[in-house]
UniProtKB/TrEMBL annotation:
Protein name from the UniProt record: Outer membrane protein assembly factor BamD
Stated role: Part of the outer membrane protein assembly complex, which is involved in assembly and insertion of beta-barrel proteins into the outer membrane.
Entry keyword annotation includes Signal: yes
Name of the gene encoding the protein in the UniProt record: bamD
Subcellular location per the Swiss-Prot or TrEMBL entry: Cell outer membrane
Keywords: Cell outer membrane, Lipoprotein, Membrane, Palmitate, Signal
Domain Outer membrane lipoprotein BamD-like: 40-246
Listed Pfam families: YfiO
Amino acid sequence: MKTTHKNLLVAMTVSTLAISGCTSIGKMLDKKPETIATAEKSDAAYYQEATTALDKGYNREAIDALNNIRTFYPTGRYAEQALLDLIYAQYQANDFEAVTASTAEFIRLYPTSQSVDYALYVQGVTNMGGAPKASRLFNLDQAQRDTTYLRLAFQDFQNLLNNYPNSAYAGDAAQRMIAIYNEFAENELVAARWYVKRDALVAAANRAKWVFQYYPTSTGVPEAIAILAYANDNLGLTETANQYKTLLKINYPEYLNQDGSVRLSDTQAKTRGQKLLSAVSFGKLGRANNKTDGYQGQYNGQTRTQVIEQANSLTLPNRNNQ
């Protein structure tokens, strides 16, 4: 994190205290011993309780202990790690709304921490799953739901790559960005297929063209070209249709029948959807620690450098410009 950002945060804090006045500061200091006195255990005891609970998978008990640390010892030696473990426990407890609140708080409170990349990563993974109270990732076809959270996740992972390119999470985040990019293309194809089935060929061509133009490296491009060829052919726009058929013949001949007509296959679409769903399950989320964490990344044939470079080349178009 840039020093200027840290200085800005410090300046804001100093300004706030100055405005409050010496009396307010005195009250704050007077209340601190009283607050700590209400704690039933030391911060070390609470943290040991939380660690034991996490090791046993008792996430709710861990959350209670970690919240006690943050309530009674907000500036103590375990405060930062407690918030990191709280993020993990909340995620494991499927309390996704709390996760994003905690990751945002961690980034705000500890902007220079070496674990900010972890907070960004978990925030992205959580947003990638969708709205906090909606069906989660593996229970719902991404392409058939609101893509707002996918866009947020893409931004989280992009921030991670831009600011922490050497992070242990960078490779996994890059693969998730690629998967999200493909999901946006698939989202357009879902609509295009719907229009094709209803012979709304102009609308189908428009959605397919959006994929071809704005997601040119996505896995949806072959089918988008096929839909464009099919739609234009059936609209009587033979010259344009033949141009797309030529692209299919050279690059994706499986979309053409022997007589040169376009083959639109639901099987191909379903297979692609299955691959995309599996593509976002890389790695294993672990607890963050200043020395080690439980994360293990997985890569599908590409080197770490290649997948990061590929992700960095991707952009999501502004949907309002369609």
